[in-house]
């Protein structure tokens, strides 16, 4: 267990280091001067030069990289060029939206996918199965931004039940949740369609195993067998996909946050790249890489919870 | 028992009565871009002016809807005989939102800061023209210029020339403090900025809107449902112009088409082959056809232009027929210039809908004359670096939104046009120092003709202002010579 944790930690550090180096180099060659962008095309060249000095952009690349890394090691993410406030504060402001959004979408995904997947497997090769397979095929094929626009037209414009977009902030209380309903649903549909198919085939595979017959023979009903024994054994591939999907959800909200004009992490990345707020881009990318490693670690831990055999194997 | 009951009942009745009869006094305005910071002396983003200029921050002068210079913070001014000194009168008892007093000394401090050696003010060059600032009394400021400038008063209206309180100036980035009719209340980054009526403003009768929310909707497709669902009351400029017909037929909205100061030329790199040859530039002018470009890029709402000058201005000269659409003529000019088999060039449009769409139509039109155009779309940061700074491009499309920006044609080979003409420099110099209006008009007519004759660019259209407003809203600008929102003039009617 200790060697496992140490190996994980080494992989974590190596991943972050590699990511930081790659993102730094990519942003170095990307054309675009943050100072010129801030002051606009009427600016006097000496004002632009003064701003470059102020932002430290005139320092050599190696020095800038080392300063950034030293800051990261101290937990200091630096100061945003454009906003002028600390990057950790900026990310924090955005995470209070994106994290709940991703969690709600993930919860919706799980509920929809497991229900549909297990149902389809239990009704294998019947009309119910075909119905689920067709619906999930459509769910995967439909681009989520387009589905989002349909949701807005129906629930915001025609029915007027929910806001068309925007986020009032948590200070407004639980009413703020209303703003997350449509976006999380739009995000969940595609993910749920994929996950439902994975669940279905995993359950089908397990259903063929001998112990299922045994469980039935000892007197369990079909439903009991399905939810108690089959699903648990089918969960490994499902959890693996869920881990990937959650990583995608946190980074992949860019488009949905644009359609619903939500001030989340996705919008922050988008704006920062456009404004060449390089320090924010670098920090967020490293943060997202760290998050993927952590989620993978959690998924590994979950394997052991689901399947006791894996605990001793390590 | 009765008495205890009576009070809440009466209160409820009063509340019901006031809410039923009080006119609406809040507004939610949509806009596409969010300001990165809230301080116009540190960042050139137009979105800062849209929210804060005139409303929160005040400059000495301001630009009216018709483009003329009007009193801003200064109630009046006089110009010296030699046009080299301006004396501004400030109102008495002006205070900032934080209670600090605004006097002539505050004006001097603000301008010294903007023109300082280490200043990063986007409009710094306007302050380089000031030789001395005098403050004979708290309500009088005298600005002495190095040389006369007919544009000085309009420069003084810009956000970069806003008057700040020395104590709060550094915090204006995220917590604006100004002297205008509105004060800053809240900025939820990525979502909205909220302003409310300032209780310390010198003329309380002016504004009727109590609270204004500016909401950011970057996606053009998302702006339409936001209006339809009633989340947003108005968009001064809506991105998806093809949806305007839908709003026209909806009684809840009014669609207002106006003009802006944004000339949109097909910009040609005059200092690089093949456009260093006037015949090639003229060939491009003959090869484009404005009607299709305007229909495709602005849904038909842009006005055609033939030079760098806004068509709504009284001094405008119609030069749209200077180079009639004539493919044969274009081919002939290319042949003369040594390109009998046509030529291959690039166009690098920035990510604005009008620019990308114009580029595509232009490319198709030029191919008829044998000019093969490679479209290389760039994002804004790339445009500034590759096109504007490095001048590594053949053609591009971008709106020039500053008023009186014809002096771009005198910025020489350092500027990305790559255009240099001694005759033009002389014309511009005379126009800038000329104080006689009739003579200035004549000079600006000559400037328009010169730009067109030299075929510096192929001029296409004036960027339209396509506004959608709630039907009961009044007081907004139809046209927008500058990017400001004069909230104090807004009001709701029944």
Question: What would a concise description of this structure say?
Answer:
Chain A is 77% helix and 0% strand.
Q: How large is the share of residues in beta strands of chain B?
A: 15-25%
H/E element sequence of chain A: HHHHHHHHHHHHHH
Q: Which two chains touch over the largest interface?
A: A-B, 51 and 46 residues
Helix content of chain B: 25-40%
Helix/strand structural class of chain B = alpha+beta
State the oligomer: heterodimer
Please give the number of β-strands of chain A. 0
Broad shape of chain A: globular
Residue-averaged pLDDT of chain B: 91
- Unreliable stretches of chain A, pLDDT < 50, 5 or more residues? none
Count of beta strands of chain B: 19
Q: Radius of gyration of chain B over alpha carbons?
A: 25 Å
Helix/strand structural class of chain A: mainly alpha
Mean pLDDT of chain A: 87
Distance between the termini of chain A: 7 Å
Largest sheet of chain A: none
So what's the overall shape of chain B?
Answer: globular
Distance between the termini of chain B: 41 Å
Question: SSE layout and pairings?
Answer:
The complex is a heterodimer of chains A (314) and B (494).
Chain A: H1 2-29, H2 34-39, H3 45-55, H4 61-74, H5 87-122, H6 127-141, H7 144-158, H8 178-207, H9 210-217, H10 222-251, H11 254-259, H12 265-274, H13 278-306, H14 309-313
Helix pairs in contact in A: 1-13, 5-6, 5-8, 5-10, 6-8, 7-8, 8-10, 10-13, 12-13
Chain B: H1 2-21, E1 26-31, H2 46-52, E2 61-63, E3 69-71, E4 76-79, E5 85-89, H3 104-115, H4 124-127, E6 130-137, E7 140-145, H5 152-155, E8 182-188, E9 192-197, E10 211-216, H6 220-228, E11 234-235, H7 244-248, E12 253-268, H8 278-287, H9 290-298, E13 303-304, H10 327-336, E14 343-347, H11 353-368, E15 371-375, H12 380-389, E16 395-397, H13 422-433, H14 437-453, E17 458-470, E18 473-474, E19 491-492
Helix pairs in contact in B: 8-10, 9-11, 13-14
